[in-house]
Write a structure and sequence with these properties.
By secondary structure, the protein is mainly β. The protein has five helices and 49 strands.
């Protein structure tokens, strides 16, 4: 900001009584084609090309405001509609800048070079389209301060869209073209590959019936038209994906294969869209009428052969591997019950006489106690009330605030040791973490006191998991072993050695309310039935009586290595979610014992974690909410999926994660998702927003893992240097 005095001259209004020239300024650059702006009390114009000059009519002649921020000549400017605060927007080839004149605070929205603008009033987002095919999306909410939500490469998005349709076997385009690559273009027409964004316009899917939308729901989907030189695209602002594509060259009846300009308008009368096109090289102008319902219906992926649901909606089939495991468990329990009953039966034994035989008491009078008074009523009452108070926990507040208040911070190890994973117990009283120094630790929920140490692995512990009854703790490490520990005594109860698995275990957990152990190794996952012998025989404690048996194993399509695995253990569910190195997510139905669906191109890189909305025993959610799950990949943010439609419903990419696989977590209420980041912060997103709501500071290194407490609004984070941090609700 400057207050120049020597470049302005006042003529004192002496030209005539009709017209008065108040001020005169000479600019070094021509402003003949620049859009100027005036408000009730201010005038705005560019000065010397890159400087924005504001003159107030009520200010003295020498008090001018010059704002600097552009590096290219300013081409347009406009004042806002409100007086308080008074805003002005200036645009150039490098920036679009929003200035608050009252506070003189600039907000820079980078978009180069800018060709089109679109404001979504419902989601309060600003979308800019550039000549290089980039879409920049910014949040216009007051508390977000014009934060950038996402940056989208239109060409890459169209390639991903075409690849998904190709892998799903959907070939419904009128002509033969499939992929929007350079092969579609002729020689000397490489400019098309950049997909310049010529026009952005609203696309109202509520105008067409839901039956025509297929899996694309018009109720919670906000879309817009993108007009480019090679075609028209329907873009979803929630999941940042292309929903439909219309290429001009695919229709031989169209006269314009390459557009230089376009305009779009929805017609509510017949649910069609009008498109006005101007040829890029010729002089033709054409008007197109687009049947929106037919376009969306033809390009949506086919529905599932069967409806999938995380909560079990049917009984276990006799041919299911789950049925075999449960049936064997019941038969084993019955046999063990019979053995215990047989042991309790009195058997005839030899009579043994000792040197001293105690009197049988036959000579004394019989002493029979019919009733005994309760002498410890008070102590019993105190004990029972103590037990009741420890078990009776308050329900999780559904409308609670995000835990953002920094709490205790502890070091998990004396030296800088990476924390690989975190998980709370089902009652929220214990927090388990796996470390890279081969140890597993269990802290109290408040991170106070000395943690319990579980040692025995020879590699970094990449997975820890609590059983549903909280008696056992499972850990898997890079040494290729899986161990089940007694949570109370930190003693080893079950060991599965590396000779059982061809490759290291990537993921492991309890499954089907602790009836099975589910683990992934290489291209397959295994369903194991296990038995833990809790009987303590001091004479034979060196013998391991606990055992396990493989029930079934299933491999991913294409036999690619699995990178993540997830299933629900708190209630009965037949669904297992897996992710592979080929960037796919595959759904298995263990009731049928086979693969049920494949999501191709789920991320631009392999998924390193799948996180399901498992809820909590302290709160309740709608049954359909348990069908939501999150996936994350390095450099591609988080995606929210719906199992019923196998569609990505929302994309979160406001947190930096470009080189390290940071962890994610669902809140027990299902309203928030948390993730780690490389900028030493943890991020919290609301499910209904594409940008983060809170950015939690206080960490000393990359946040590697996050976990929500299932019983109270509390968030635990772990860092690359071995620190654990708690965040509490205000």
């Amino acid at each position: 900001m400057e207050n120049p005095q020597d470049i302005f001259s006042s003529n004192g209004g002496c030209l005539s009584d009709t017209v008065t020239e108040k001020y005169l300024v000479e600019s070094k650059e021509s402003v003949s084609h620049v859009q100027l702006a005036c408000s009730m009390q201010d005038c705005a114009f560019p000065l010397d090309g890159t400087e924005l000059c504001i003159w107030n009519t009520k200010s003295p002649s020498h008090q001018l405001l010059i704002l600097r921020g552009h590096h290219q000549p300013i081409t347009a400017m406009a004042f806002g509609n409100k007086v308080n605060p008074l805003l002005i927007c200036s645009a150039s080839l490098d920036y679009v800048i929003m200035w608050n004149l009252d506070e003189c605070r600039e907000k820079v929205l980078q978009a180069y070079p800018l060709l089109s603008l679109f404001i979504n009033a419902e989601s309060r987002q600003l979308v800019t389209g550039c000549a290089d095919g980039q879409l920049w999306i910014f949040s216009l909410m007051d508390e977000h301060h014009y934060r950038r939500v996402a940056r989208v490469d239109l060409r890459k998005k169209t390639e991903t869209f075409s690849m998904r349709r190709l892998k799903s076997g959907l070939c419904s385009r009128p002509e033969e073209s499939q992929l929007p690559s350079t092969s579609v273009l002729g020689k000397g027409e490489q400019v098309e590959v950049t997909f310049p964004v010529l026009r952005l316009a609203p696309c109202d899917l509520s105008l067409i019936p839901n039956s025509a939308c297929g899996c694309l729901s018009s109720e919670n989907t906000q879309c817009m038209w993108i007009g480019s030189s090679v075609g028209l695209f329907i873009f979803n602002l929630a999941n940042l994906e292309v929903e439909a594509a219309l290429y001009y060259r695919d229709f031989q009846s169209l006269s314009i294969p390459l557009a230089g300009s376009c305009a779009l308008r929805n017609r509510t009368a017949d649910h069609k869209t009008l498109c006005l096109l101007a040829s890029l090289f010729g002089r033709k102008i054409a008007v197109l009428e687009i049947n929106l319902a037919a376009l969306v219906r033809a390009q949506q992926c086919p529905g599932l052969r069967q409806s999938l649901s995380v909560p079990a909606s049917s009984c276990v089939l006799p041919t299911s591997p789950l049925y075999l495991g449960v049936a064997k468990e019941k038969s084993t329990k019955a046999a063990s019950g019979r053995r215990c009953a047989a042991r309790n039966v009195m058997k005839d034994q030899r009579l043994v006489f000792h040197s001293k035989v105690k009197s049988s008491g036959y000579a004394s009078a019989p002493h029979v106690t019919m009733f005994s008074p309760k002498t410890n009523i008070k102590s019993e009452g105190k004990g029972s009330s103590r037990r009741r108070s420890s078990c009776a926990r308050e329900p999780y507040p559904v409308e609670c605030a995000v835990p953002t208040k920094p709490g205790p911070q502890v070091a998990a190890a004396p030296t800088c040791t990476r924390v690989c994973c975190l998980q709370y117990s089902g009652d929220g009283q214990w927090l388990a973490c796996g470390l890279s120094n081969h140890l597993s630790l269990v802290f109290g929920a408040s991170l106070t006191g000395t943690p319990a140490v579980f040692s025995g692995h020879d590699g970094a512990v990449n997975t820890v998991c609590w059983s549903q009854d909280r008696r056992w703790l499972l850990s898997a490490a890079q040494d290729g072993t899986l161990r089940v520990w007694s949570a109370r005594g930190a003693e080893l109860a079950l060991l599965l050695g590396r000779d059982m698995f061809s490759k290291p275990i990537q993921s492991a957990q309890f499954y089907y309310i602790d009836a099975f152990i589910l683990l992934s190794s290489g291209p397959e996952f295994q369903l194991l039935k296990y038995h833990i012998d809790s009987c303590k025989d001091e004479m034979k404690r060196y013998k391991q009586k606990s055992k396990s048996k493989m029930i079934c194993r299933l491999s991913m399509t294409g036999a690619v290595d699995m990178t993540s695995l997830s299933a629900v253990n708190d209630f009965y569910s037949h669904i297992v979610l897996t992710a592979g190195r080929n960037r796919t997510v595959e759904v298995f139905d263990l009731n049928a014992g086979c693969s049920a669906a494949v999501i191709a191109e789920a991320h631009s890189r392999p998924v390193h974690q799948i996180c399901q909305n498992k809820g909590s025993s302290f709160t309740t959610q709608q049954p359909q909410a348990y069908n939501l799950f999150l996936t994350t990949a390095i450099g591609d943010g988080m995606r929210l999926w719906d199992l019923r439609t196998l569609r990505c419903e929302r994309h979160f990419e406001g947190h930096p994660s470009r080189g390290y696989p940071c962890g994610i977590a669902f809140s027990p209420c299902g309203r928030f998702a948390a993730c780690g980041a490389e900028d030493r912060h943890a991020y919290v997103y609301e499910m209904g927003s594409s940008t983060f709501s809170h950015r939690l500071a206080g960490h000393t290194d990359t946040v590697t893992a996050v976990a929500f407490n299932p019983s109270m609004p509390q968030l635990a984070t772990a860092t690359l240097d071995g620190k654990l941090q708690l965040f509490l609700a205000e």
